[in-house]
Amino acid sequence: MTIIPYTVKRVLPGTGLGIWGIPMLRTDIRETGDAYLLEIEMPGVKKEDIELICEEDVLTVAVKAKEPENADGYVMRERLYGEMKRGFILKNIDGATISAKLENGVLLITLPKKKRDSGRINIE
Predict the structure, then answer these.
(1) C-alpha to C-alpha distances, 25 to 49, 66, 71, 88, 100, nearest whole angstrom
(2) Alpha-carbon distance 40 to 35, whole Å?
(3) Residues 6 or more apart whose Cβ sits within 8 Å of residue 52
(4) What is the pLDDT of residues 4-23, one digit of tens each?
(5) What's the CATH fold of domain 3-68+78-112?
(6) Which pTM does this prediction carry?
């Protein structure tokens, strides 16, 4: 695999992990012939509150999940609010062509694979 999740960080007090040790920014990673697809759960988050940064083969996903304005009447709350970050080490990814979209509470990130020159390899 050429995508390595490496950091789960929560700026607010806590371990950076949610209930039962599951990362707060739960992510599924799929591979296609020419790309990797990251699917990150972000219920109730607006795209203005998400920041994606790709520097030196590291993709960082940062989100500021805001607590609902009217927080009265809740009997139980499991969703986490505050600032959260998660990083992914990228190997063999074309960082210049990464794309993302937020759809139905899921951030979809497409990480195109680097094109490898094929052909005969000379032996010295």
Answers:
(1) 14, 14, 22, 12, 15
(2) 16
(3) 59, 60, 61, 62, 98, 100, 109
(4) 655 444 443 344 454 445 45
(5) Immunoglobulin-like (2.60.40)
(6) 0.74
